[in-house]
Write a structure and sequence with these properties.
Helix content is 29%, strand content 31%. It is built from six helices and 16 strands. A hairpin with a 2-residue loop joins β14 and β15. It is found in: Membrane.
Length: 318
C-alpha cells in the first residue's frame, strides 16, 4: 500500500506538470525565441511567448500557423501542435491527477484505519443510534467448540469476508478466512448461531443466499480453493455452545486439555457428515464474486475470478 501511494504521488506530480504546460500553451501559444530591438537599436533573440499579444486581438490565433514561422526564429522547425492535441492532453492529465489523488487518499486512510477491521467480529447495528447491539467474535466460536486447531487455521484467522442476508429477513450467513461458514438467526436485539461448518479448505470469499429455490435457506459459497458449493442450511444444525457471546463483552475461552489430533480429525469428520454440499463445482480458479440467478426459469450460478471472463454453471440435481 505504501509503494502504490508513493507511485501515485510521483504520477500526480507528472500529471500536474502536464496540466500546467497544456494550460500555458493554450493561453500563450508556443515557447520560442523571437527577435527583439533593444534600446541601443541593436537586435537580439529572446525566449518567451511572442504570440501571447495576438490572444487579445485574434480569437483563432492558435490556428494561424503562418504567424508562428514569421515570429519564431528558434527552434527552426517549431512543432505544429494544435488545439485538439492540447485539449486531449489537458483532459487526460486532469483525469490522471484526480485518480492519483483518490489513490493517495485511499492509501492514507488504509494505513490509518486498516488495522481496525481485523478483529474477527460480526456485529448487529442499530443505524438510528449508530452503535452495535450485539457482537459475536468468530475466534471465540472456534475455541468454545473445544476442537484443536489445525496448522492451517493458525495462519488463517477467522476474519469475516462476506455476509449475506436471507429473504426471510432474520437469517444471515458469514464466510471467514479459515474456510468456515456460519449461519446466524436474529432474535430481538441479538443473534444466535444456528449452523457452523467447514465449507472450504481455504478462505471463503463469497456467500449468497439463493432466493428462487424451494426455501430461503439455500446458500451458495465460493472460496479461494476454487470451489463453488451449494448448501441447504435448513437440513441440520451444529451443536450449540453452552453460552452465547454477549454484545460488547469478551469471555475467557475454555482450556483444551488432552485433545489429540485423532479427536480433532474425528470431530471434523462428523462435522462434514452433518453438513455436506448439495452441489459441488470445481471452478479451479480463486473465486472473487458469485451471483445466483434465475434465467428463463432455470437456476444458474454466475462466477467471476481474476480473469476477464464470467463463468455460468447450472443448478441441477437437487
Amino acid at each position: 500500500m505504501l509503494c502504490s501511494t508513493l507511485y501515485s504521488a510521483v504520477a500526480l506530480t507528472g500529471s500536474t506538470l502536464c496540466f500546467g504546460i497544456c494550460c500555458t500553451g493554450l493561453v500563450k501559444g508556443p515557447l520560442c525565441a523571437y527577435k527583439v530591438t533593444f534600446s541601443n537599436r541593436s537586435q537580439g533573440l529572446e525566449w518567451g511567448y511572442p504570440l501571447e499579444q495576438f490572444s487579445t486581438r485574434e480569437v483563432n490565433y492558435l490556428y494561424n500557423h503562418t504567424s508562428w514561422f514569421t515570429v519564431c526564429v528558434e527552434p527552426h522547425n517549431v512543432v505544429l501542435w494544435n488545439v485538439v492535441l492540447f485539449c486531449i492532453l489537458l483532459a487526460l492529465s486532469g483525469a490522471e491527477a484526480l485518480l492519483c489523488v483518490v489513490q493517495i487518499l485511499n492509501g492514507i486512510t488504509g494505513c490509518v484505519f486498516g488495522s481496525g477491521v481485523r478483529n474477527n467480529k460480526v456485529m448487529l447495528w442499530n443505524l438510528q443510534k449508530a452503535r452495535p447491539l450485539w457482537v459475536q467474535n468468530l475466534q471465540e466460536l472456534g475455541e468454545e467448540e473445544e476442537v484443536q486447531q489445525s496448522a492451517g487455521q493458525l495462519f488463517n484467522p477467522p476474519l469475516a469476508h462476506a455476509i449475506t442476508v436471507a429473504t426471510c429477513g432474520n437469517t444471515f450467513a458469514c464466510g471467514s478466512e479459515d474456510g468456515k461458514i456460519h449461519v446466524f438467526k436474529v432474535v430481538g436485539t441479538r443473534f444466535e448461531r444456528q449452523v457452523g461448518f467447514k465449507g472450504h479448505s481455504q478462505g471463503v470469499s463469497q456467500v449468497h443466499f439463493v432466493n428462487f429455490l424451494s426455501h430461503p435457506h439455500w446458500l451458495v459459497s465460493g472460496g479461494n480453493d476454487g470451489k463453488v458449493l451449494l448448501w441447504d442450511a435448513s437440513t441440520g444444525s451444529m451443536t450449540e455452545s453452552k453460552g452465547q457471546a454477549k454484545g460488547g463483552h469478551r469471555r475467557k475461552a475454555k482450556s483444551v486439555k488432552g485433545a489429540s489430533k485423532e479427536g480433532a480429525d474425528h470431530n471434523t469428520e462428523l462435522e462434514v457428515k452433518a453438513f455436506s454440499p448439495k452441489l459441488c463445482i470445481n471452478h479451479e480458479e480463486k473465486v472473487n464474486w458469485i451471483c445466483p440467478a434465475q434465467l428463463k426459469g432455470e437456476g444458474w450460478i454466475i462466477v467471476a475470478d481474476q480473469s476477464s471472463s464470467l463463468s455460468v454453471y447450472p443448478i441441477t440435481g437437487l
